[in-house]
Amino acid sequence: MAEPEYMILQGLPTPQVYHDLRKRAGLTPPSPEAMTEAVPQALHNSFASFLAYERKLMLNDTRPSPHQDVVGMGRLSGDGGLFLLVTDIAVHPDHRRKGIAKRIMTALVAYIDEHAPHAYVSLVADPMGQGLYAQFGFQGTGKSIGMFRCPKLQKDEAWMKAKGFQC
Predict the structure, then answer these.
(1) What's the whole-model pTM score?
(2) Which residues cross the membrane (predicted)?
(3) Which of 29, 100, 134, 155 lies 20 to 30 Å from 86, alpha-carbon distance?
């Protein structure tokens, strides 16, 4: 069997890598104000995080080269026991449709099963990701709806309209 083109490794992105990959993947990047304290704190408090790298650029199977770009990421946040949230599933557009998101989800679900088997795991799925998440046993919440509160974003009418929210 051929070696995979990408390696999925447990680890945290730097705040700048996190920002840039979210932006390139079409997710809302954190604000400049959040980059100094909130993003480092959020990344530090992750329950688990996995990063994808191109194998051909790695120093070995467990170590990316120092200047190698992260091409995908996924993260778990929550209390580590009863409630977890899958966040930041992002793949660089140049590396999509190569199974990276599926392999990141496989790593996240295996981590959950081993370290938090009693957790209620939730996520908010954009239409593009719904089929992927269903493969891992995630299902719609029925009559429940996803909700959010982020005053800075909610004040930005252009962002709200671009995301399909009623203003």
Answers:
(1) 0.89
(2) none
(3) 155
Q: Is pLDDT of 167 > 60?
A: no
User: From its phi and psi, is residue 68 left (phi > 0), alpha (psi between -120 and 50) or beta?
Assistant: beta
Q: What percent of the chain has pLDDT over 70?
A: 96
* Contact by Cβ (8 Å): 61, 72: no
Helix (H) or strand (E) holding 110: helix 100-115
Among residues 108, 127, 128, the alpha carbon closest in space to that of 119 is found at 108
Q: 21: closest CA among 65, 53, 58?
A: 53
The dotted CATH code for 6-162 is 3.40.630.30
Q: How far apart are CA 24 and CA 92, in angstroms?
A: 6
Q: How far apart are CA 71 and CA 67, in angstroms?
A: 12
